[in-house]
Write a structure and sequence with these properties.
Helices cover 44% and strands 16% of the residues. The strands form 2 sheets. A 6-stranded antiparallel beta sheet has the order 3-8-4-5-6-7. It contains 5 helices and 8 strands, in the order ααββααβββββαβ. By secondary structure, the protein is α+β, with helices and mostly antiparallel strands.
Length: 200
């Protein structure tokens, strides 16, 4: 939930508690009809805010599940350095970029390190399906990227001679090289970098 929605909900709750007291300026109860109208208005505001929060959560969940389903559709596509299509094959960042562009219409930068720089840092414990996971596979930070699919697993285009596949982040190789998690927010992804070959 975004910070402004949290703030708005807290403000509404505070207003709901404070409003009846604010009406009691002369130690007499306000007319029941005034108090009833005020509480009805506060309830309306509360319901509208709650509905927006729920809608936003559903939109995020739908987007993430659609993105993961689309990514799974590319299982078995061969790795190709610099590749960014099912016809040519994919490298890691080309795969991520294609999935985001085709499913949610966001254009990420071309290279893994640029994708890390253009997205929101999150803690590993906050990972949700559709988030990006980065690894240091070439002795430099953010040299490999995949898409988190849930249950501590990610989908990616691993290396030459391999195919797009799902792997477990707890496996020793990936656990030792884990380099950070990122979330793609709508506005951030559009700061696309010029196309160039990938770092992996």
């Amino acid at each position: 939930m975004s910070r402004w929605l949290c703030t708005l909900l807290l403000a509404c709750a505070a207003a709901a508690q404070a409003a009846p007291q604010a009406l009691n300026t002369d130690d007499t109860d306000p007319p029941a009809s005034d108090r009833g109208r005020l509480l009805t208005r506060l309830d309306d505001v509360r319901h509208k805010v709650t509905d927006k929060v729920v809608d936003q959560a559903h939109n995020v969940a739908d987007r993430a599940s659609g993105l993961v389903v689309a990514a799974m559709g590319f299982l078995g596509v061969p790795y190709k350095r610099g590749g960014s299509s099912v016809e040519t094959g994919f490298d890691c960042s080309g795969f991520v970029r294609t999935i985001y562009e085709q499913t949610v219409g966001l254009l990420l930068p071309r290279r893994a390190d640029q994708q890390a720089a253009a997205t929101q840092v999150i803690d590993k414990k906050e990972l949700q399906p559709g988030d990006l996971v980065f690894f240091n596979t070439m002795r430099r930070n953010f040299s490999h990227v995949g898409i988190y699919v849930g249950d501590n697993k990610f989908i990616h285009a691993p290396r030459s001679g391999a195919q797009v596949r799902v792997e477990d982040m707890d496996v020793g190789y990936w656990a030792r090289r884990f380099n950070g998690a990122r979330r793609v927010a709508g506005g951030e992804a559009n700061a696309a970098a010029p196309a160039s070959s990938n770092t992996n």
